[in-house]
Structure formats: structure tokens, C-alpha cells
UniProtKB/TrEMBL annotation:
It comes from Rhizobium bangladeshense. Residues 28-47 bind DNA. Keywords: DNA-binding, Transcription, Transcription regulation. The keyword DNA-binding applies. The keyword DNA-binding applies. Residues 5-65 form the HTH tetR-type domain. This is TetR/AcrR family transcriptional regulator. It holds the Pfam family TetR_N. PROSITE patterns: HTH_TETR_1 (PS01081), HTH_TETR_2 (PS50977).
Length: 197
């Protein structure tokens, strides 16, 4: 990683807890500069505004998270376990950092205002990756979609929709994990032959 890239990553990593603590509206560039250990002038050399910085943070978080989701789904092993790990990676990378904040709604709204295109692209990629994993599992005979009449893309979209619901009920106490485990048990029972459950 180049020095400039390291500097930007440091600023974005420093900004995340500041936004989580104060919310988007109350966070100032001075707060971020102080946390990053740089001057406001240095911060403004890197980012012209708080909005630009927030969007760059969203780009980075989505890029890193989707790379992790893809890596998890590419692993060898039980497809339901890989889907569960992918959902966890997605939640940890994109939901947990703000979901644990009392400013979560404001931050998610700011993200949709400033980086909606990035969020939509990541969701589309997630559905595509899940669809590929389901299709591969079906081709290997690991799961059977015949009884449900669903296509892999339908199931992937349903999983993503369930994740959205879980996101809106995200809890810092880990109860969201219970919802993910329940979703995975339902998928396992519905899709896998009894001998593989």
C-alpha cells in the first residue's frame, strides 16, 4: 500500500468511530482531524468536505466487506455454513460499525443520501454471489430447490431481504446473531436432503 493510500485509510478508519459517536450532523472535520492525529488543514487536503469523507469511507467499507464476502463464499464446505459466514462478514463490515451506535438511523440515512449507488451496487453483488453459491450447491446435489420452485437468484434475493430485516433490528447484544442462526436453520431444513442436515 502506498503512503498516500495508508494516510487516507488512517483518516477513514479514524472517522468511523467519530461518526458512530456523534452522528453525521454533529461530527465536524475538526473532530475527525483530532482523532486522526492530523491538522484540519491536512484533513482538508485529503477531503474537501465531511460529505466527501463519509462517501469515501462508504466506498472503502463496501469494497473491503464485499471482498471478504466473496472470499468466504469461495471457500470449500457446506453451502449453508458459507452463506452464514458471508452474512456475518456483511453484517460485521457494514452494519455493526454503525448499528451499535445510538445514531444508527441517522448514519444509515446519511449513507443512503451520500452513497446510495455504492450501497445498491454492493447489494446487487451480494445477491449475485449468493446466487452463484446456491447454484453451485444445487449442481453438486448439496441442496435441492425443486420442492420450493425457486431459482438460485430467487433464493439469493430472499436471503438478502431477510438480511435487510435483520439489519433494521440489529442489536449490539448479539441477538441479531440469533436471527441469522434461525434463518440458516430454516434454509438447511428447507433445502438440504435429510442425510446432509
Amino acid at each position: 500500500m502506498k503512503d498516500e493510500d495508508r494516510k487516507l485509510a488512517h483518516i477513514l478508519d479514524s472517522a468511523l468511530p467519530v461518526f458512530a459517536r456523534y452522528g453525521f450532523q454533529k461530527t465536524t472535520m475538526a473532530d475527525i482531524a483530532r482523532t486522526a492525529g492530523i491538522s484540519r488543514a491536512s484533513l482538508y487536503l485529503a477531503f474537501n468536505s465531511k460529505e466527501e469523507l463519509f462517501r469515501a469511507g462508504s466506498v472503502r467499507a463496501h469494497r473491503l466487506t464485499m471482498a471478504e464476502v466473496e472470499a468466504v463464499l469461495d471457500r470449500v464446505g457446506d453451502v449453508i455454513d458459507r452463506i452464514a459466514a458471508a452474512i456475518s462478514a456483511f453484517q460485521e463490515g457494514l452494519i455493526a460499525p454503525f448499528g451499535k451506535s445510538e445514531n444508527a438511523k441517522e448514519l444509515f440515512d446519511a449513507n443512503m443520501e451520500l452513497a446510495e449507488d455504492i450501497t445498491i451496487a454492493a447489494r446487487s453483488k451480494l445477491i449475485s454471489l449468493l446466487s452463484e453459491a446456491v447454484e453451485d450447491a444445487q449442481d453438486r446435489g448439496e441442496i435441492d430447490l425443486a420442492a420450493s420452485g425457486a431459482r438460485p437468484a430467487d433464493l439469493a434475493a430472499l436471503i438478502a431481504a431477510a438480511m435487510d430485516g435483520i439489519k433494521h433490528n440489529f442489536r449490539a447484544d448479539g441477538s441479531s446473531d440469533d436471527s441469522i442462526r434461525l434463518l440458516m436453520r430454516v434454509l438447511r431444513l428447507a433445502l438440504m436432503p435429510e442425510s446432509r442436515r
